Amino acid sequence: MAGEGAAGAELAGKIGGALKGAGSSAGPAAKAAGAKLVSGLGSAAGGLGGAAGGVGNVVGAGGTAVKGAAAATGWFGMKSAFDAGQDFGTWLFIAGILFYIGKVAGLPSGFLVFIATFLLFFYSYILFQGHKGGWITVISFYVWGILLGFKGIMPFDQTYLIYVASIIFGIAAIFGLITKGQGLADEAIGLVPIIVFFIEIGAITAIADGFFNLSSLLKSMILFMPWFAFAGLFSTKKNNIILNILKFLGVFYMVSILTVGLIPDLGFSSEIFNPEEFLDTERELRSGEGDRPNPALLQLKCTLKMFQKIGETYSIEQCVQEEMQEYEIKAKCTDDTGALDPNCVTSERQKLEAEGQTTSGTIDRDIVEETSAEFIIDSSTFPKEVTRKVGQMVQYPLTLELKNPHELDLKVRVGCKFPANSNTRANFDSGEVFEGVIIPEGREVIETNNKDEVISRICKVPDESNINGSSKIQFYAEFEGLKTESYLTRMFVEKYDEDNQLLKEAKNEFVSGSSRHSGSADEFARINFAFGEPETNPIIEEDDTVILISALENLKNGKITKVENYKLELDPDFIVSDGEYGCISGGESDVTLPDNMRDGDKIPLGLCFLEMSDEIKSKLDDADFLLNTYNAYLDYNYRIEKVQNIKVNILT
Amino acid sequence: MVSYKKIIKNKLFLSLIVLLIFLFLTSCNRGSSQEEVSVNLEQNYQSGYNGLKIELVENYPPENVFVNSVFSIAIKLSNQGAYKLFDGTIEVLGFDNQFIEMHDLNEGKRFPVSSTYMYGKNIENPSGDINHIEFSGQTKELKRGAESYDATFFVKAGYDYSNELVTTVCVNPSSYEVYDGGCKAQDTLTFYGQGAPLSITEIEQITNTGGDKEIRFVVTIENKGSGEAESITLTDYKIGGESMECEFRKNSNSNSNMFIFEEEQKVQLVCNSAIIASSSYETSLHISYHFTYSEKIKGSFNLLE
User: Fold this and answer.
1) Spatial contact of A517 and A536, defined as CB atoms under 8 Å apart
2) Predicted TM-score of the model (pTM)
3) Cβ contacts (< 8 Å) between B96 and chain A: which residues?
4) CA A467 – CA B203 distance, rounded (Å)
5) How many Å separate Cα A9 from the centre of its chain?
């Protein structure tokens, strides 16, 4: 146990050494910084490196703690407690726990910030013994964050941020120069208490939420960790039984939080049951939709090819893309015997060429209510493995959760299938399959317009399937009546001039970034469309030759089974001047759906030229610019599937 | 005993901390160059770079507006400069027709309302004339499945304004005269605004002491406001009550009294005048002009379901 503690300390030292080597040129100062940073990070309980070092320490501490647990009572325990109380780290730990309790209990925010400020400076005092430079960092960020409210971040003000950065780095540099480099390391250490402070007061959450969605792991770390308490615990200089027990409990708590935080990210996959199934799942991921080559090897191959193409126009990126496509085509068109079907290869290459005439789309983050459906498999109740006598029924629960916030009139047909061949690489689209029996019989089709619908059925294995051993079940649901809308924004000007500040500002405000492409809710499929000169240019000038490209895109891993109709609403601003009229509306006969559809597959709908109406031109005479968003509507049917591993043991 | 070196180091360290806080706190007061110019309005209104100030009246529009409802945008216009404003047009731009439709016509609204001019700041009217203009619009539906929409818009005002500089210059026909009991000519005069956003910032004085004695003024006119200058037209350019010959540098306009601004919001005016006197003397220099200017502000509200 003591040996493990030593191993843990050694690990922490190694991490510190690694940090030291990772790009520091200040020699001894960096060495101190690396070691101190690791212990500082460990004391803040942030980062896996710190946690790993901490775990190593705690395993040793745990051993000591177990041995000394009995001795923690009585006089020896009291002595340890008194001893601990002499250490500032202990006081910080206690204060941190009380602060966390106060936070959870909902004490007034102003009071909490006041206490957090006190804890920040207290922690800084503990950490900066002999390293005064850290105060510069702490004060800088405290003033900027609390007194000035992170001015410059939201709303983003580049000039101000440069001003702030110049001040901080300027003062830091002066101090660093005066102290001949030693101060720089101290200033870096100053980041540790400031990060702990801002995590504790939720500032990190508030800022991050404004820019991106926090993963559940990060949220767990922010919400459930008493950071000041950890900081205090791992800052203690004393080494006695009570502190070691607390450290052990602290790391145990930290690991629990990290694990719980990780699980929502991984998902409670019903397919992960045992080591064999781990490997099975990985194998399926590798081979599920065609073998994918090792990207690193492809990169190397294309880089070497570059030397053969000297003097010619060549792009490594394009080469990698083409090689990937070739691999995918070969994998798709190779049968179980290993023979390559040339007709399949030709058809796939034609499909790829057609995809070049399509356009992309984006997910519109303004849209928060979307139609979705998912098969739910509860790992605790789903009969992954059953044992039956010959002739006995084998049944599986089918649960489909449907979210229909727009109350569409949907018709849903559910079903299940079993492969005839229990090969783990079974493809339900080809090869012999047996259709399961849905119970109650005759209740496979559900008509609903409810916002939330849970469809529960039982899938009975057909007698003729003779399943015995490992196999699979495929649940499927076919939806009729789905509708998805897409939106595209365009800015109209007489003539765009980059020197015109108003137009430049309007462009940055209204049509920058994702406005090049249309956007939609994250549903099953959508229309992608774009028009302009070129089509992805969001600014349309009065005399532009406007081209429109539209495509159908599969957004999920299911299949579009039918396109009822689609329509792009461009009137009264535009009419089709030349090209296929199918580019703005059509029905089932205008769209050829492939047999095998994958997530991301695009089907071109149309390519045509548009003419701007006189109405919009006359509006432009009076306005500096105009802004308009155009809609596209897709009515379609869709099929989703979910495959689950099963095992049936038939007793003879 | 604490070493002398350590005392110095500690003091230095403390000084750095204080300097840091001080520098940060002063950033609270960073503002545009207009606000940094100290203006004693009671003594001289014709200074600084202020012009028309545009503000949105609070709650017009409110922070949140619901779909399928009517809303108003009220704008307060105040002439913070020193001159009359006329021929103004104000418009609201940037609403996506899919979500918001304005009731008013696209070409905007005229101002001043109910008078020809909006007067600037003066002794009798230290806050300058104020006008209020209102626009109204109708909100439509959001995208299907969306709960809100950030409706950002611009308010743009274009107007005609003036500027005038009257200053005393020293004309010295002979710079090499050893003894001259008159004034001392200055090569460059610097100015901090005359109460308009497009102001004279510098006058360079060049004296040609050759055969035909002549004085030349290179007048720099710069846009120091937050808007954009579109064009400038000279109205008066005199020295000692006598007209000068003036023209804009790099002027492609056929009318030499007029200059149209493009990318650069700065122009130089070159004025020449003959010198009659033989010794130095002080005299008044008067330059005035009209210009067309535009300002804009940004506003927004949340369109909610």
Assistant:
1) yes
2) 0.62
3) 489, 510, 627-629
4) 98
5) 34
